User: Fold this.
Amino acid sequence: MRVTRRGRMPHGGKYVALRSRGSAQELELNWYPTRSRFYTNYKRGDELDHLAFGVGDVAAALEKLVSKGVEIVVSPSKAKGVTEVYVKDPDGIWIELLNW
Assistant:
């Protein structure tokens, strides 16, 4: 896999995105500082932070999900031309929707 994107988040976290040759899918790895609202203590096992999906229109996708009762966890925001929002699935797993 090769690095396709990396950077720092507004709350101080860091991210790096990886992609295998010939694939359109990316794997994004995130690190959150202990003072971040996104930080959780690691528990050995199969803990999942969140899943992210790129969509063509974040507002339209969010409207559809909210109409079905999905909870918004982090309101839509825009930074460096990317709009993103976080919702919570029925199992409590955060889902990120973004257009990049």
Summary: DSSP finds one helix and seven strands in the chain. The helical segments are 58-67. The mean pLDDT is 86.
